[in-house]
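Recall that a protein's primary structure is simply its ordered list of amino acids. Everything else, from secondary elements to tertiary packing, is in principle encoded there. The following example makes that idea concrete.
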Amino acid sequence: MRIFYLVLMLGWAIVAQAVSPVQNLLERIDKGASCKFVLEQVKSPVDFFELDQKGKKVVIRGNNQVSIATGLNWYLKYYAGIHLSWNGMTARLPEVLPAVTKKERHETSLNYRYDFNYCTFSYTMAFWDWERWEKEIDWMALHGINMPLSVVGADVVWYRVLQKLGYSKDEINRFIAGPAFQGWWLMNNLEGWGGPNPDSWYRQREVLQKRILKRMREYGIRPVLPGYSGMLPHDAKERLGMDVADPGRWCGYHRPAFLQPTDSRFAEIAQLYYKELTRLYGKADFYSMDPFHEGGNVEGVDLNAAGKAIWKAMKQANPKAAWVVQAWQANPRSEMIENLPAGDVVVLDLFSESRPQWGDPSSIWYRKDGFKQHDWIYCMLLNYGGNVGLHGKMSHLIDEFYLAKSSSFASTMKGVGLTMEGSENNPVMYELLCELPWRAEKFEKDAWLKSYLKARYGKSDEVVEKAWLLLSNSIYNCPKENTQQGTHESVFCARPGYDVYQVSSWSEMDDYYRPEEVIQAAGILLSAADRFEGNNNFEYDLVDIVRQAVAEKGRLVYPVMIDAFKAGEKELFDAASSRFLELILLQDRLLSTRPEFKVGKWIEQARSLGTTVEEKDLYEWNARVQVTTWGNRTAADQGGLRDYAHKEWNGLLKDFYYNRWKIWIEQQKSLLEGGTPQAIDFYSIEEPWTKQTNSYSSQPEGNVIKVAKEIYRRLQ
């Protein structure tokens, strides 16, 4: 009988191991890879992972599935020379894995590792299907993420809530934003723009979110669901007779109304919302609410009462839950959270690398007492608008993290977070941030970078290191005091003019590096390219870095063109403007070699979700508008949103940015010939492209290294 029970228990253990989420992850990385590892989950008071050896098998040991996945990623990078990233989540593992000759252990007291910004769900994920989401959840687990924002399908909750409040289908669709703009709707910034959504959209979102949450929970990842922040349609006073505050407008758009906490129906509406949310997607340990985000008018609102009402409603839905709130500009207003219990609020210090609010006295957004009793997370924003471009504060990110960790505010610092507006860019910076919690001692940037490059490309190379060290000390060495919103924006993507510098309205760019250094680094990297032909990570980075070099050359040529015009030098203007336009087309050609840099991929993702031609066209319009005008004429021009989400993408460069610059240049040529000055209505030039449905390829075109070499030669 004892033998029978032992056999039965052994069978159960084998079955349990077979269905382990990390085992399944290994199979998705490389079929058959799971049999090369021993995965062991053991109890521990702290999050940790260990790398060990048992015969020919590598042992990954950890206190939960995310810790084990993090250990697996560490092993793949630093033992096997395999770097899994957004541009590639599969790999061929060696037949015999490199041995772990000495047990290696990493642990962290930072239990919250957060991911995403509301904007990420629009700028990057608006049209993702399950296949892409599955890869992202795997990436999160491998990088230690255990607390991601998860707002897919929030529109389904709102649809049902508003139905119960008596709103018609048309009224609901005038409130809920379209696929590419839901991030700002959920942050209470706008209503309806991008819609109305078809019925099939809501069905798809519900199915997708349930699948996303199921996989997250299998890993032990605790999602942050969108909670109730007091939002209602802006006509709620007339429509429902409720006491609401008007937060005003955001970049020309009506903001949703804010239901006053003193209204007798606040608790009722909140309860209705959480009931629908829970019925659809289950309870969460964390709920995200950001009332009065980015300049919302709080006049006439008792902020203390509002904070307590939002907190109380959340606690009634789940007594164990905590409120996750973004620290951005004036939010969270101290009056809203100062009287709430410690442990019930988690503040995302959204832009810690540039405008920390946790208590660093050198910050522009300095809060003397930090977030007081509340827990907070050290976050890196890095990317705005999903813009393409190399950028980072590599050394400062490390310094500021360890400064915070050793400060008087360290006791409430509970983790790190990725809060980018758009992802799938600058993998080196995200890799760096995700490793910080697992490195107990402060480390040097250069040594870390060399180990990263060996992992990313599978081998060390002195020439590659030279190129990247140059980048790390220039474009990736943005100064501490610089507060610009992401990358140094490409002049190609700007509306033409005589004094073009930044592209978007709020960039705050500053010349902190020399363009020539980036061009030089691209040349150095190209000299090693033949040794890495076919290496996916290398070829992606090569295109990105040469792309940046072309953009830098454009920034150098632009003032020559303008000075020639101002000096009345027709021949020089013709030569400089021709060169400028040529550079745009060169960049377009370069970017055609990788699908990640093609507008065709973005549009294809959008159209693939439609079930009819009309739906496909609606989603494509959403996709095109977001990366160009962003909004209607008022929002684009007066609201300043045009080109905020600009992209250096193949197809978009040739058909949108090139066309815009060419029209402007032709006008300048006319003026040099004595023509009459006329103001250009740029919106009337831009809007037609957003309404087109011409096809763009999503497939790579040409040999990456050959094309990159050709483009670089033509930069000289």
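The chain has 26 helices and 17 strands. Residues 362 and 468 are 29 Å apart (CA to CA).
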